[in-house]
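Long-time lurker. I teach an intro course on protein structure, and each term I like to show students one example going from raw sequence to a predicted 3D structure in token notation. This year I'd like something fresh instead of my usual example. Would anyone be willing to generate the tokens for the chain below so I can use it in lecture? Attribution to the forum is fine with me.
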Amino acid sequence: MSSPVNTHRFSGTLHLPGDEDFDEACFGRVFNARRPYDRTPAAVLRAATEQDVVEGVRLALRRGWQVAVRSGGHSWAAWSVRQDALLIDLGNFREMAYDPQTGIVTATPSVKGGDELNPYLAEVGRFFNGGHCPSVGIGGFLLQGGQGWNARGWGWAAENIVAIDVVTAEGELVRADETQNSDLLWAARGAGPGFFGVVTRFHLRTRPLPRHLAHTVHAYPLDLFDEVMTWLQGMHHRVSDLVEIVAVTQTPPGAEEPVLLVTGVSMTDTPEQAADALAPLHANPYADRALFRVEAQPTTPAEQLAGQRTANPEGHRYLVDNAWVTGPADEVVPAMRKAFTEQPTRQTFTIWFSMAPMRELPDMAFSLQSEIYCATYVIHDEPERDAELRAWLDEAMRALQPVTVGQYLGDSDLTVRQLKFMGDEQWRRLLEIRDVRDPKGLFVGYLSAGSVTNTNHWEQ
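-- Reply from a regular --
Happy to contribute to a lecture. Here you go:
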């Protein structure tokens, strides 16, 4: 018989099956109300310190457990809750420190980008392009690449990781940067839940806080979807890279029907710069048919985050899927139509996110993108509708398939649909590094219905 687990070494708390609060430890911090009650971890360690993480990995090694990690709990498929694995939950391990000499901020993975990190940085006039939903922890967000504010202009958030502190499969805490353990840094920038280590701290390059944010919003009836999106597809690459461009179909608060919103948020320093950067969006030839228009209106990070919080409410059931798409407007727009114009619930929304003109990516695991990102978020509160709504979402994604090149891990569920999410060369390199760094498979890797092949399922 195995020896009892020694819980005295932890500053945090180790929860075992049968403990009164075990279920809360497993599922309480899962953002999606569609929780995976059919998966039961071997134990949950609510870590409070970096040493807790080290000791947790070493405990798993002794017990023959695999290791899963939870930072913010926002993974739609709850990747951190894995059968018979030790779940190391970092929610109680929250630290931040800013170095004014280097402009580097150090933060633990469970720190929330919008609710915590950027308010902290704003006090010193700095900014980090973290996730749009303010309660998302930076850990999973960064490991997946980090599709943050103005990614089309500022790049992926993972590009600003200059170093990580990470507990390896041997239970050792090491620093990984460009000069030491650089293979771990390379993998951490894009491997997502396939990363073979527990990051305890990210060292992140920050940027000056933009002094003047402004936004443009045009609202159109859905019967203008084809015309407006065809125009947007043909011009978005010409807009200043200081503007984040998003088109979204959603039902605004107080409205009865969904509308198509064409939006731009400019990250500039003066009203004049904002007006100039946003001007191309104001030239929409269908603007006179808009339901309402807001143009180059001053806004604040707090206002933008409030809108994101409204669109991503807590305590609801989410079904989410996505695609990187490419092609001419006469192919892309019809393929997107179902996802954008047939919303199955009132809170459902679909986004079109511009990444054009395309930037060359640095050498990192994250390596697949296209000029347009589409994602649909089906939000509801009726468990009996899960299968029906999943079927609707699958059909919407199938319609996109002819123009799809892959998917983004952050909005994916590989147990349902597997698409390519990394370049072929980078995928081979990631597997090679994993074989060296975690040859016995201590870390659980990707949650999927079968083996993960990094291919589009219709090409297999």
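Some talking points for your students: The first helix runs from residue 22 to 27. Residues 142 and 279 are 32 Å apart (CA to CA).
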